Amino acid sequence: xxxxxxxxxxxxxxxxxxxxxxxxxxxxxxxxxxxxxxxxxxxxxxxxxxxxxxxxxxxxxxxxxxxxxxxxxxxxxxxxxxxxxxxxxxxxxxxxxxxxxxxxxxxxxxxxxxxxxxxxxxxxxxxxxxxxxxxxxxxxxxxxxxxxxxxxxxxxxxxxxxx
Length: 163
Ligand SMILES: CC(C)(COP(=O)(O)OP(=O)(O)OC[C@H]1O[C@@H](n2cnc3c(N)ncnc32)[C@H](O)[C@@H]1OP(=O)(O)O)[C@@H](O)C(=O)NCCC(=O)NCCS
Prior knowledge:
The protein is α+β, with helices and mostly antiparallel strands. Helix content is 30%, strand content 36%. A seven-stranded mixed β-sheet has the order 1-2-3-4-5-7-6, sandwiched between helices. Residues 34, 84-86, 91-97, 119, 123-126, 128-129, 132 line the site of coenzyme A (COA).
């Protein structure tokens, strides 16, 4: 019975913290569940060790498993979102917005002023997340991406000032 009850129990609110090298396998798993060209654990280890990178994770409680992450990289005072993903079963409950709020608070505290990103034209969930968190479109690059089925798709470049 306890298994049945735990199925209906709401997920705990996520805890947010800086990403560490130990998170690399979990971030690779989240990335693989979210993108058709996955980055492996070694790639996340490399990115997390890069002095120009800043990562945050959302976990199930303070010591729980990562259920989302945001990774940014750039030369102060400007940076760029390299990747953001939330576990498929946890989407639509505000974790993406909390990752952005938490990461940008940390970046602003370091004196970063501007965040850029590129998003695939047809990625409605991501475009809505970015528009609702204050990003504005600044450009468009036709045919920049290939979708999972190999069709060319435009990249929308966006910008948000955080200072
Ligand atoms: C994009 C992504 C990170 C959003 O995370 P999330 O936790 O589901 O987002 P949130 O619940 O915080 O939603 C943020 C806003 O976007 C909207 N939104 C989220 N998913 C949506 C969808 N599928 N369609 C329309 N709007 C959506 C929400 O309504 C919310 O707006 P509101 O606060 O005004 O109500 C998540 O869908 C994901 O991991 N996608 C796969 C990876 C990816 O595409 N990353 C972006 C690459 S550029």
